[in-house]
Amino acid sequence: MPAVRRATKEDMPVIRDLLRGFRENHTPDFPHDFEYFSSLVEAVIDQPAALILLLDEDQGILVGMMLPTQFSLQPVAQELIWYTRKESDRRGIRLLKEYLNWAREKKSTHALCALKHEHPLMERMGFNQVQVGYYKRLEYDE
Known about the structure:
Elements: E1 4-6, H1 12-25, H2 34-44, E2 50-55, E3 60-67, E4 76-84, H3 93-105, E5 111-112, H4 120-124
Parallel strand pairs: 4-5
Antiparallel strand pairs: 1-2, 2-3, 3-4
Helix pairs in contact: 1-2
């Protein structure tokens, strides 16, 4: 069974590597400042409202936070990054299950997840699809 554990500051080299993998696989042409991105993750790693999980030490990462939404100031669990290396893709569900356990511990009323595409497993796990996100690169004449 895959091992999932909370990350610590000592894990930052592995976390940075996983964040690079996440970046390469998700919107690679979207504006991105890697140092800023990784410094945000490092800044919240020990915060009670944040969760950073590692799968099998270096095979996957999930970053979640208790945050308000645009609809309410009541914080709810929000998955911000969920990435597994290609060879460990099918084991990433362990990260999600641990995230849900954490959300329950935090007494969150809801747990939000964003995926790149629809996934039937999410509905089998009790999730409801609430939106589909898109982005468009805007071109300008110089």
